[in-house]
Amino acid sequence: MSKGITSRAEDYSQWYNELVIKADLAENSAVRGCMVIKPYGYAIWERMQAILDKRFKETGHSNAYFPLFIPKSFFSKEAAHVEGFATECAVVTHYRLKNDGTGKIVVDEDAKLEEELIVRPTSETIIWNTYRGWIESYRDLPILVNQWANVVRWEMRTRLFLRTAEFLWQEGHTAHATSEEAIAETERMLDVYAEFAENILAVPVVRGRKTENERFAGALDTYCIEALMQDGKALQAGTSHFLGQNFAKAFDVKFTSKEGKLEHVWATSWGVSTRLMGALIMAHSDDQGLVLPPKLAPIQVVIVPIFKTEEEKAQIDTFVNQLTDELKIKNISVKYDDRDTQRPGFKFAEWELKGVPVRVAVGARDMQNGTVELARRDTQTKETVAQEGLAENIEQLLQVIQENIYQKALDFRASHFTEVNSYDEFKEVLEGKGGFISCHWDGTTETEKRVKEETKATIRCIPLDAKEEEGVCIFTGKPSSRRVLFAKAY
RNA sequence: CGGGGUGUAGCGUAGCCCGGUAUCGCGCCACAUUUGGGAUGUGGAGGUCGUAGGUUCGAAUCCUGCCACCCCGACCA
Length: 490
Prior knowledge:
Elements: H1 13-19, E1 20-22, E2 35-37, H2 39-58, E3 62-63, E4 69-71, H3 72-75, H4 79-85, E5 91-94, E6 97-99, E7 105-107, E8 112-119, H5 124-134, E9 143-152, E10 166-176, H6 179-200, E11 205-209, E12 221-228, E13 234-244, H7 246-250, E14 254-256, E15 262-264, E16 266-273, H8 275-284, E17 301-306, H9 310-329, E18 334-336, H10 344-353, E19 358-363, H11 364-369, E20 371-376, E21 381-386, H12 390-415, E22 417-419, H13 423-431, E23 436-440, H14 445-455, E24 458-463, E25 471-472, E26 479-480, E27 483-487
The structure holds one RNA strand.
């Protein structure tokens, strides 16, 4: 397997191969950019699901499931929403196939649907159509529901992990009695995402709000977390939207308030997707492959035995079984790779490629000395340590690795975060080291679009922690009261 | 949909200009020697040369149509 510099997303393809492959759908030219998630990749997604789902439950949410198909008429009820998604919808028009007489299978034109069904690109419309029947009184609120699902967006260009035609995600959809409560929910879920990204994925993120131009179709306000990849490009890692009363009005969802008045319900929606796996790869990987943070890794410790005879193997097995038990008590996931079809060196390389944080190698020599070889993936260092107290040692090491991976990503971001005060400086940084560029902007969509046309950089967000600061727009020279973050993005 | 490029074994490729039935590497299978960083040797299996047609005694190679895929742009979690 070739090894290369991982400076561009395309170069990550060899690590992607451990997790996903492009779906082979060549018979139908229009369907491309779908992915097959391999077992190891799916195990990572399951870890994400488990951790996020727990947080959702802790914050009062419940899971539910809504249909894959959305009648076209639902979809068109919210004007901005339909405009935003209309150009990327898969549409079901028929419900039956038939044999055309020559043995060829064709669509049965007699089985044309009265009303076309849209394969959900997101579920706001069908969920709000359902909520109408659930809500009558303020006593029915809030509704705090999440759905784990797949969605389809027929993008003109796809890219494995970052923009596949079909992807897995979770979408939270909540209904509230007041604007304040809905905004608080929007912000709370953004915090859940940010905390997850930083503490679990070890990917530092900027919390911010989107400009009007980059806002979700149908939202009054879009909050986001923005991460920085190792090639200097930004990646939107999660969004949380304050939808106002737009969907309640479109789907006629009203409730009677404490005061006895009939009012429209306030809404939020928020989601993260399998794109997070792309973020994980591009934030931490090196030339040896994936680097998984211990809190997320499906396998935290891999043990590789080195032996020549059956007697040696049996002796090592006894030791490993005991170690495995001790680690499992500490909730550490272990893989004992005692395959006799591969040699140790091959296994070392393979588990490094898969990003397993800690490797224990133990052979006859170690068994004599009462030692093992302990190797860490993040620093690629190894040392010989005592078998005694090994489980505790590993437990601590996993924490150290988690922190180190985060710190490394944080340092990288700090060195790729530049304040600029002129357009020339802006372009120079953008073409040079890249990363986030903090500068003044006049607040108009027109300026934003012109900067994008000229430089391909977009406003990633207006950071939540941006200070009030008088300045002038680097592009137009007009006054500005705070800095925004620009970057080239995926 | 515009601009560029590519289709040969599971993967990556040579051959094409100048026509004679396909090269090499990885991987796979068997055996032997190996096993503390991606083993070595010997033997073996595996190919509608994207597809349809044309030229020719003969096409991976020349000609025409079609199809697919990749990269760039519009779009985007």
